[in-house]
Design goal:
The protein is of the alpha/beta class. 34% of the residues lie in helices and 22% in strands. Helix 5 links the parallel strand 5 and strand 6.
């Protein structure tokens, strides 16, 4: 019996050491990623083009209320005058949203996730207007619904990837890469240039490699009218955290999701500088209350099945 317990103890120890090794490797990797952050003037110059998008909205694929806040999983939809559209992030489908929320119920005492349906389900006939998709990063709550855009026969979807998205990842982004692979109507296009990446065929939208949250984290700037929307993904939990320079919880950044706190602090400072121009509006992906509180006249409104 004693020998058996020793063997079990050794096995458990080896598993723990292996897990720690994977976690350490991910931390070393994310801390090595710090692509250059361009000046706001350079971003404005890249966005000063013809044929700008005319609308931006968001599809809310799911939400979940915890004791402290309300977490949303949106997909942003940018539209041009001729009807073509670009999605930035895809949220999740119904089943994924429910499953994704269960750990938050068990650990944080959150309410069950409310699933509203995939991006394609909510856009309905308008889903065929989405000709391309890009991602702020490759976590499954941002990529899970992409495959639903392939439901229509003969669909062709461009999947834009910044170089770090195409080439760098860790165990936390492997699920997102699998989601891209199962988006069978998608053709992957790696963006060229940098530090500001232009999305071919979709003028008025540019990408900047960020890092910090994941190796592939990317920030998108979308120029519509007098407002430039800054879609930052998960580099912070809220816009207020950026303004007040509040870091994420250490347990989250060191154990749950291997992040680079120093790079995230650098990104918060850079974004504060960007937003000293009031025409720039930062949107944090999961900060649903903040998104809903944006002035309606700015035009970032929710797209519902009825509205679609």
């Amino acid at each position: 019996m004693g020998r058996a317990l020793t063997v079990v103890g050794i096995a458990i120890g080896l598993v723990v050491l292996a897990a720690l090794g994977v976690l350490l490797e991910a931390h070393l990797q994310i801390r090595s990623i710090h692509p250059p952050l361009p000046e706001r003037a350079a971003i404005a110059h890249a966005l000063a083009v013809d044929d700008l998008p005319v609308r931006i909205g968001y599809v809310l694929t799911s939400e979940q209320r915890s004791p402290d806040n309300r977490i949303g999983h949106p997909a942003f939809v940018v539209e041009w005058q001729d009807g073509r559209a670009l999605a930035i992030d895809a949220g999740m489908d119904r089943a994924e949203a429910v499953d994704f929320g269960k750990p938050f119920e068990a650990v944080l005492g959150a309410a069950p996730a409310i699933a509203y349906g995939s991006i394609a389900e909510q856009l309905g006939a308008r889903a065929t207007a989405v000709r391309a998709i890009a991602f702020t990063h490759l976590h499954v709550d941002h990529t899970g619904g992409a495959y639903t855009l392939c439901d229509a026969p003969g669909r062709a979807l461009t999947i834009f990837e910044a170089p770090l998205q195409a080439g760098r990842g860790n165990y936390m982004t492997s699920g997102g890469k699998e989601d891209i692979e199962r988006t069978q109507c998608g053709k992957r296009v790696v963006l060229e240039g940098g530090p500001i990446y232009v999305l071919p065929g979709f003028p008025g939208v540019v990408a900047v490699a960020a890092g910090g949250h994941t190796p592939c984290s990317t920030i998108y700037f979308v120029a519509i009218g007098a407002t430039t929307w800054v879609l930052v993904g998960d580099v912070a939990f809220s816009h207020r955290d950026i303004v007040e320079d509040r870091p994420k919880n250490a347990l989250y950044s060191y154990l749950l999701v291997p992040e680079s706190p120093d790079r995230l602090a650098e990104l918060r400072a850079w974004l504060r500088g960007i937003e000293t121009d009031p025409s720039y509006r930062i949107v944090v992906s999961h900060a649903l209350d903040e998104i809903e509180a944006l002035p309606p006249d700015l035009g970032l409104t929710r797209i519902t099945p009825a509205a679609a």
